[in-house]
């Protein structure tokens, strides 16, 4: 009788050899770099042309984690020539970058592939895990097919995973500040179950939802109504009466820092009130991504300058970019654009409304009969070439020339 077929784990492959990375960096630079943006940044972030002044935030655009993920995707396309290469979801939340990745011949799988999708994979296939990471069950299913995995998960995301795993080991429920549908939050939640599956989590979107959690901690309530409200945002078997006894706050790394701090303060105060002043049953670790914080801080600094309008550039589904918009629109007329194509004319701009989740059109956004200062920032998934395109388009609409 023939021996049963055994799928051996794939050999480790070093994608970051000097030869490969030399080719990758040349190609990535060609696709995403901007000498104009680098020059403006080196000159203090201000460009004055005629009656138009453009002010760039001190920190904007690609972060290290995004650059690393893109580099590894490009490297995979060069090293695994002739093999099928798949990407779980999007490499980052930017449509222009994702289109460029697809042009390398990399195919897209959904972030949560079905059993049928998994069965189409073979040991000859390569699967890229995006910068957000992927759920434990998804990674395990891909590994079971013997696929070569290229893991581009951001280090800051993995730091959060370490914290929630520790919570699970010590039977502490992870309260995750994030969006329950976001790839990163789902990946983090899957780690919060722990290696034995006995851990628990609850995902809260904002301070209002945290208040609801605190109210149940202090006063109890209808458990069925609580679970219905948090449908899809709680771990299997979660019981608010049992599993809110000990909690630890973590977060999707791209959330608004001030809101994460507000949530952790609410939960700590509720536990102290419930437990006669003790906070022994509360834990908090600062897990906001450094690049996210730098871009938020830089925007606050830019908002101190005198600007007539502010452009925020990035993918409409980019969490860190959306939070930049939230900060900006509280101070100045703000337009969230995907790229320079949104600047239709000096009288018309297409931009995304983060409250209605729709793209809309505004008129007379760029007056051309007076001096004007435009502030510009971009999310961590926006490349410099898109920022240059926007700068040139603004100047063109103003009748100015570099």
Task: Explain what the structure shows.
The protein is α/β, with parallel strands linked by helices. It folds into three domains: 35-62 and 291-397, 3-Layer(aba) Sandwich (Cobalt-precorrin-4 Transmethylase, domain 1), CATH 3.40.1010.20; 64-152, Rossmann fold, CATH 3.40.50.11270; 156-288, 4-hydroxy-3-methylbut-2-enyl diphosphate reductase, catalytic domain (Cobalt-precorrin-4 Transmethylase, domain 1). Helices cover 41% and strands 17% of the residues. The chain has 15 helices and 15 strands. Strands 1-2-15-11-12 form a five-stranded mixed beta sheet, sandwiched between helices. A four-stranded parallel beta sheet has the order 4-3-5-6, with helices on both faces. Helix 6 (136-144) links the parallel strand 5 (126-129) and strand 6. Helix 7 (155-169) runs parallel beside helix 8. The longest helix is centred in the middle third of the chain and has 18 residues, at 257-274. The model is unreliable at 1-6 (pLDDT under 50).
